[in-house]
Known about the structure:
The protein is an alpha+beta fold. The chain has 2 domains: 15-57; 68-135.
Amino acid sequence: MTPELKPCPFCGAGAEFHDVGDFHAAYYVACTQCVADMGSYRTEAEAAIDWNRRADLCQPKVKPLVWRNEFGCVHTAWVVDGSRYKIDAGKWTNGKVLLTTPDGGPLWPETLEAAKAAAEAHYTAWALDLHKQLFEVTE
């Protein structure tokens, strides 16, 4: 059974196996669109392991937000563009925590931990979308 290959880490297109075709069994993986490829391996499985590892390493990573406690119940995390996530865990009449995102949206999570998780998810989605806009290969 042929191992599954992840998309090209450089352009996102598919990848395929190639048989070197000499008297030794040797395979390599190459992108179907750009010039990315790998060295040759004895088996398709070995080639797939290295190709997929490379694809994983090239995926953008988002650093977690760093929270600063201000005034006891206010927690702030600044973002690289100067905006911030702010959590006010004070005594609100609805019993929830106020999370303010950089785009102005107030959210009302139940707990401080839930507010931090929601802020982290919002920030990660924003950062990955920005990365895609900046680095996406267009045809």
